[in-house]
């Protein structure tokens, strides 16, 4: 969340002219009455969704259409990935490396997939630790099917990460409104304590 400090995030109070994954505008004007354009906290764009998650923008390139596209795309990626893993398994079987190596590879992919699913799923509800994220990069790369599955299942209910971003955005907006209302009045007439 950014405030009115000039950071380059998209604003819910102004039109976002950046483009999303398909090269389309990712935001719509959602200005609040009485607030100047660009004032206040700005929502953080989500991957593939931009800022359409703020007001669940309708339309051909809106929130619902993007959720459907992401769900179909992630499921298609899971299917293709499973076919690639099957070819890899058949290659190991053809190489005749032995049942222990084959079992070890299958268990490794299964465990990495389960851990990647859990890590990605938890990342939708809380901010991941950057150091831990860096240390798990290899594991997440091996278990990429788990991450894709987590993305698919999350898009069935909401945009992945929407709940976390909405909580942060609502908190930042409430804090901004409280600060704005506290600034009213003449500061020279404020009584000094002491």
Overview of this structure, please?
By secondary structure, the protein is mostly helical. The protein has 6 helices and no strands. The longest helix has 33 residues, at 63-95.
Topology of this protein?
Layout: H1 63-95, H2 99-123, H3 130-135, H4 137-142, H5 144-155, H6 162-182
Summarize the structure.
The protein has 6 helices and no strands.
Q: Calculate the terminal CA-CA distance, rounded to whole Å.
A: 36 Å
H/E series: HHHHHH
Low-confidence stretches: 1-35
* Radius of gyration, taken over Cα atoms and rounded to an integer in Å: 23 Å
**Helical stretch tally:** 6
Oligomerization status of the protein chains? single chain
Largest sheet: none
Quantity of strands, as a count? 0
What is the helix fraction of residues, given as a range? Answer: 40-55%
Strand percentage: under 5%
SSE class: mainly alpha
How confident overall, as mean pLDDT?
A: 78
The gross shape turns out to be: elongated
Annotation keywords:
mainly alpha, 6 helices, 194 residues
């Amino acid at each position: 969340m950014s405030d009115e400090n000039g950071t380059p995030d998209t604003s819910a109070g102004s039109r976002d002219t950046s483009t999303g994954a398909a090269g389309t505008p990712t935001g719509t004007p959602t200005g609040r009455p009485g607030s100047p354009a660009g004032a206040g906290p700005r929502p953080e764009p989500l991957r593939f969704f931009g800022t359409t998650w703020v007001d669940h923008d309708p339309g051909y390139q809106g929130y619902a259409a993007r959720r459907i596209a992401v769900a179909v795309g992630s499921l298609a990626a899971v299917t293709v990935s499973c076919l690639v893993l099957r070819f890899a398994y058949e290659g190991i079987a053809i190489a005749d490396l032995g049942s222990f190596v084959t079992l070890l590879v299958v268990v490794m992919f299964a465990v990495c997939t389960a851990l990647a699913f859990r890590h990605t799923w938890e990342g939708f509800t809380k901010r991941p630790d950057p150091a831990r994220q860096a240390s798990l990069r290899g594991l997440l790369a091996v278990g990429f099917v788990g991450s894709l599955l987590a993305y698919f299942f999350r898009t069935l209910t909401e945009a992945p990460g929407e709940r976390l971003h909405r909580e942060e955005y609502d908190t930042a907006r409430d804090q901004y409104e409280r600060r704005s209302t506290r600034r009213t009045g003449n500061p020279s007439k404020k009584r000094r304590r002491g």
